[in-house]
């Protein structure tokens, strides 16, 4: 890991299908927007560096990969996330009503009890608003989450949403420091030979 | 459940077991349209990893097969075609003789919770207190290890599913011998530094391990043992204690293991040392089912559709070919069906071998002088061996201070009696909770239509080698032209950021 990066944070984006989760992710990480839904399929996670108050962090932002459609996200999706963005569509009451379920899903599966949550009302560019800004804010206050309204289409609020979330995470003590003493690892194309004389191939 | 499921697919996969999930990812990567269903509300079937609450619920529903057959006529209205319907069965038939019990008090009244009892082992726990942290448990129904250079690790890397899973080393390789638990020296440095092995024995041990490590098919070294057991060879070259170390812990064999088979298994173990620390085995943080969840996620990234808590009541066959699945009053159609053996219709399902299993929650490690983490203990008896896996708090499978013990083997009662206490004996770990059951393997016995592919449930091996082989075999039948987990084309470069911002966007962490 580069020296200037403080840490890598895992951020989740959850909410009903079609509210614009993948679009927000792509707008933020690649500054792109596609009105065709099918093009947001195939997003796994994206990483992006972000500097806040003089600290640089790397964000790994995880898409649902469409597994939210029948509420079948894997528990492993939620593991070790420091931040979660809960998205609804301001033009759809149904997606707003489902936020309660998403919050309880998050409480069930997130492994960090102090995970930072942000409620995002998306698609404010679109005609036919059903949820007012006040209603959204009230919900967020009641559940002690951050709140913002956005449009992945016009970029409104997108950068801000991620910045506020990350700022809050960094300010939360004990949330992002490594917990397992660095003893865990991932498997990768390592050396073809054992790296230490723990093995039998090397001659002593 | 809303039925906006599309009705046709290339492949429908029924069951989210290990083999099924690997196949799901593999075929989705080739561009095939996949629907992956599971009758349970959780991933993994008999491979699942469950919180304590879910685990207790699983135990309580136990062996009760809730399935009632509806009769073929109830499906006739689904299609005009002349289809024959075979009703699926319940995976619960794989479990029998299930018992469980708590060995601690229900609750401790506030006033009694005084610190003076602290040293009385087990006394500070109550059922309520442990259930309160149910989510801190990740209990495996089928725990298995990964060889550091085995096929599962290879596929994880090739598929890039590796980015979803973190691992720990299995850092204590142990054996129960002469009424005590001993650490097995595995690597050269282990043998050198071992204080319990004298210089003469060290030299003998070195010699045997080195000749096993350098064994090849052409190697004449073991030829004289061709018709003998591995133990015959080991005993001829080593004191009995070390012969047992190698036979049980390194080769995972028994008295009857033929010499060449033992040599090959021991060699595999030895050749896995040194890649990820001084242990041949890896254990996934949060439990075995992280692996299959990773494969399912990859299938979803490649547009696979996931639906849990969704039953397929019957499999429809047209002539000698599979046609589709009857589910929730609709017919879902696909070219291929991949299905767990355990769910197969009775015409095609038979019961195979079985093994005894136990899961314990304890208050102390079986080997407190070892490193914190994952311990693997072989417990040989006169006629068979039990394999014991112990997980401590840093595996994220159990709250700190407690231990999960997984035991496989028909002699497990003897192992439990000698290694653990039900109370009273403070020198041994106390059993706070225990669950025992017999796990039966289901087999495909009838002749299935050739576009149905049946997947085995958990076997009794410690590793995933057989599962990977089976998944590849099924993949080849569905995609004969394709490479199993062919590398993906690199992600296109994202549009470059404004030069003054310190931002980047890539897809691999
Ligand atoms: N007008 C408008 N459309 C949006 C916005 N965000 C997403 N969409 C569209 O909504 C549809 C669903 O978006 P997607 O990102 O796939 O939603 P997801 O299912 O939550 O990932 C797509 O057609 C997007 O183009 C937005 O802010 N404004
Ligand atoms: Mg999406």
TrEMBL record, chain A:
Family annotation (Gene3D superfamilies): P-loop containing nucleotide triphosphate hydrolases
Organism encoding this protein: Nezara viridula
PANTHER family cross-referenced by the UniProt entry: RAS-RELATED PROTEIN RAB
Protein name: small monomeric GTPase
Top enzyme category: hydrolase
GO MF terms held by the record: G protein activity; GTP binding
E.C. number: 3.6.5.2
Pfam families tied to this protein: Ras (PF00071)
Similarity comment: family membership: Belongs to the small GTPase superfamily. Rab family.
InterPro entries recorded: P-loop_NTPase, Rab, Sigma_54_int_dom_ATP-bd_1, Small_GTP-bd, Small_GTPase
Highest taxon of the lineage: Eukaryota
Keyword match Protein transport: yes
Entry keyword set: GTP-binding, Hydrolase, Lipoprotein, Nucleotide-binding, Prenylation, Protein transport, Transport
Reactions mediated catalytically: GTP + H2O = GDP + phosphate + H(+)
GO biological process: protein transport
From TrEMBL, chain B:
Subcellular location: Cytoplasm
Ranges of biased composition (kind: Acidic residues): 494-509
Database matches in SUPFAM superfamilies: FAD-linked reductases, C-terminal domain, FAD/NAD(P)-binding domain
Principal location: cytoplasm
InterPro entries: FAD/NAD-bd_sf, GDP_dissociation_inhibitor, Mrs6, Rab_escort
BP terms from Gene Ontology: intracellular protein transport; small GTPase-mediated signal transduction; vesicle-mediated transport
Domain of life: Eukaryota
Ranges in a coiled coil: none
Chain residue ranges for the region called Disordered: 484-509
GO molecular function terms noted in the UniProt entry: GDP-dissociation inhibitor activity; GTPase activator activity
Family: Belongs to the Rab GDI family.
Name the UniProt record assigns to this protein: Rab proteins geranylgeranyltransferase component A
Lineage, opening ranks: Eukaryota, Metazoa, Ecdysozoa, Arthropoda, Hexapoda
């Amino acid at each position: 890991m580069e020296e200037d990066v403080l840490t890598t944070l895992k951020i989740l984006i959850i909410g009903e299908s079609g509210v614009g989760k993948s679009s927000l992710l792509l707008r933020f990480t690649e500054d792109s927007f596609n009105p065709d839904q099918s093009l947001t399929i195939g997003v796994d996670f994206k990483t992006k560096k972000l500097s806040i108050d003089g600290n640089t962090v790397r964000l790994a932002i995880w898409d649902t990969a469409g597994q939210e459609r029948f509420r079948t996200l894997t528990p492993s999706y939620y593991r070790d996330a420091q931040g979660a963005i809960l998205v609804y569509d301001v033009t759809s009451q149904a997606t707003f009503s489902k936020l309660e379920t998403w919050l309880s899903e998050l409480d069930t599966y997130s492994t960090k009890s102090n995970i930072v949550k942000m409620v995002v009302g998306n698609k404010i560019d679109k005609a036919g608003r059903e949820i007012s800004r006040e209603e959204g804010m009230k919900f967020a206050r009641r559940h002690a989450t951050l709140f913002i309204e956005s449009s992945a289409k016009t970029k409104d609020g997108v950068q801000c949403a991620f910045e506020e979330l990350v700022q809050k995470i960094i300010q939360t003590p004990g949330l992002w420091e490594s917990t397992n003493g660095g003893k865990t690892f991932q498997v990768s194309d390592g050396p073809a030979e054992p790296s230490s004389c723990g093995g039998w191939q090397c001659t002593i | 459940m809303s039925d906006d499921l599309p009705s046709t697919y290339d492949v429908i996969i029924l069951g989210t077991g290990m083999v099924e999930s690997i196949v799901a990812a593999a075929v989705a990567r080739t561009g095939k349209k996949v629907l992956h269903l599971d009758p349970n509300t959780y991933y993994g079937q008999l491979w699942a990893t469950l919180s304590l609450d879910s685990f207790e619920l699983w135990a309580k529903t136990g062996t009760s097969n809730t399935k009632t057959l509806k009769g073929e006529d109830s499906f006739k209205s689904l299609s005009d075609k002349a289809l024959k319907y075979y009703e699926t069965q319940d995976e619960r038939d794989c479990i029998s003789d299930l018992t469980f019990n708590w060995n601690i008090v229900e609750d401790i009244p506030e006033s009694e919770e005084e610190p003076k009892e602290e040293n009385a082992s087990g006394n500070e726990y109550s059922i309520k207190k442990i259930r309160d942290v149910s989510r801190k448990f990740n209990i495996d129904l089928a725990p298995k290890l990964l060889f550091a250079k085995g096929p599962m690790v290879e596929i994880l890397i090739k598929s890039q599913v590796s980015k979803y899973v973190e691992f720990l080393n299995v850092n204590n390789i142990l054996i129960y011998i002469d009424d005590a638990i001993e650490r097995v020296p595995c690597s050269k440095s282990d043998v050198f530094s071992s204080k319990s092995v004298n210089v003469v024995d060290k030299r003998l041990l070195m010699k045997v391990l080195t000749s096993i490590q350098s064994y090849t098919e052409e190697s004449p070294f073991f030829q004289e043992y061709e018709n003998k057991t591995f133990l015959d060879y080991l005993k001829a070259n080593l004191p009995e204690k070390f012969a047992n170390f190698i036979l049980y812990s390194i080769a995972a064999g028994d008295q009857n293991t033929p010499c060449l088979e033992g040599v090959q298994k021991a060699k595999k173990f030895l050749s896995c040392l040194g890649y990820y620390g001084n242990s041949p085995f890896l254990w996934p943080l949060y439990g075995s089912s992280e692996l299959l969840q990773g494969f399912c996620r990859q299938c979803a990234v490649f547009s696979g559709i996931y639906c849990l808590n969704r039953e397929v009541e019957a499999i429809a066959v047209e002539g000698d070919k599979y046609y589709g699945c009857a589910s929730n009053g609709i017919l879902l159609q696909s070219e291929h069906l991949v299905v767990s053996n355990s769910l197969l219709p009775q015409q095609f399902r038979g019961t195979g071998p079985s093994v005894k299993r136990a899961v314990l929650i304890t208050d102390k490690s079986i080997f407190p002088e070892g490193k914190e983490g994952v311990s693997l203990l072989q417990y040989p008896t006169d006629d068979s061996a039990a394999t014991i896996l112990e997980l401590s708090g840093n595996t994220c499978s159990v709250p700190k201070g407690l231990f999960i013990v997984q035991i496989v083997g028909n002699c497990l009662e003897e192992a439990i009696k000698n290694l653990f206490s039900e109370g009273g004996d403070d020198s041994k770990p106390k059993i706070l909770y225990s669950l025992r059951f017999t796990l039966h393997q289901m087999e495909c016995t009838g002749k299935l239509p050739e576009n149905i592919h049946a997947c085995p449930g958990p076997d009794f091996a410690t590793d995933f080698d057989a599962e990977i082989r089976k998944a590849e075999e099924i993949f080849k039948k569905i995609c004969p032209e394709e490479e199993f987990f062919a590398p993906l084309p690199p992600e296109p470069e994202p549009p470059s950021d404004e030069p003054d911002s310190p931002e980047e966007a890539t897809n691999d962490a």
